[in-house]
Design goal:
- This protein is of the alpha+beta class.
- The protein has helices at 2-34, 39-79, 128-133, 136-139, 191-194, 199-208, 220-226, and strands at 147-155, 158-168, 171-174, 182-187, 212-216.
- It is rod-shaped.
Length: 238
Amino acid sequence: MKERLLEVYRDFKNSFVNIHNEIREKLEFVNEKLGWLDSKKFKVKMYCVSLANIIIVLLLVTAFVFPLVPKITYYIIKSQPETITSQPSYASSPRIEQPPSQSNSPAPVYSVHDSIPPEPEQVDFSNIAPTLSGTAIVQDFPSKVTAGLRFFTFVGGNRIWQNEYIITKGSVVEGQSKDAEVKVILHSKYVERFYREDFCNVLKDANKNGDLGYETHLGTIALAWKFKSLLKYKSCLS
């Protein structure tokens, strides 16, 4: 870059010197021919000539320098070090290789209960409706009165509702009743016992173990009046 600027400067200096010498030679030639011997006139002429020289030099400088300005500016800018601010490229980021796992490392053991909740114990409800329908307490059930029987179990400390039945006089069918005067709640672990044991004994054990309950919207007197035909089975719940 410096060499280029020096070369430009030398060319400009040589041009300027050549023009100046050429103008001086022409002026001397004119002075000799015209015979400007008078000193005052000569001084005035020389002054005018000097002013004309200055104007001519300025014009020449303008003609030579202005075309060189873009080139000089280009070389100055090109010579400066470029400062590039680049955004981080995630595609070119170095990959971090993870060390391979040791083959003798034990695989993690997960408990089934961490992701899959335990299923409730399977209960055979297939014959519970006809079995209960044949019991004496259902046969003596009061007419025009509806009750519900709902089984439940516990899984992981949570109560899970299971099959539900409708009880009327002499009949037990699977389903839900919104008009039931009372709803009996019983743990399903006693279902299997109903198939082989006395109905009253099973109810006694369930009540003793806290696995039997009921829900009703009736008061005590109204409940006793509606189910007065079952009072003889009171011992089953004691």
